[in-house]
Amino acid sequence: MSDEPVILINLLKVKPGKQDALVALLKRNTDTVVRTLEGWKATRLIAANDGAGVVIYSEWESPAAVEAMRSDPRMQAYFPEILEMASLETIVGSAVFGEAR
User: Fold this and answer.
1) Which residue has the higher pLDDT, 92 or 4?
2) Which domains does the chain show, CATH number per domain?
């Protein structure tokens, strides 16, 4: 297994006035479900300043860990509530460049 994490990015376009509720739901999901899943490494939530979007950046040990998360019944229970507040687009990949100061 590579030491490089699999990166999962979820782009959520939020319905007007729903960003705070969505962030609260995503935090609760991360605290109660995501952090308990095998292969999870990290999650970061990024909220748009204009209230129109949220990005979920998460790192996983492998593509299999991402698929296991998606099929977990506890995760699936959250999806309808998330989709009531936002549309969802997903990208799975790996880091190809990074720089920091």
Assistant:
1) 92
2) 6-92 (3.30.70.100)
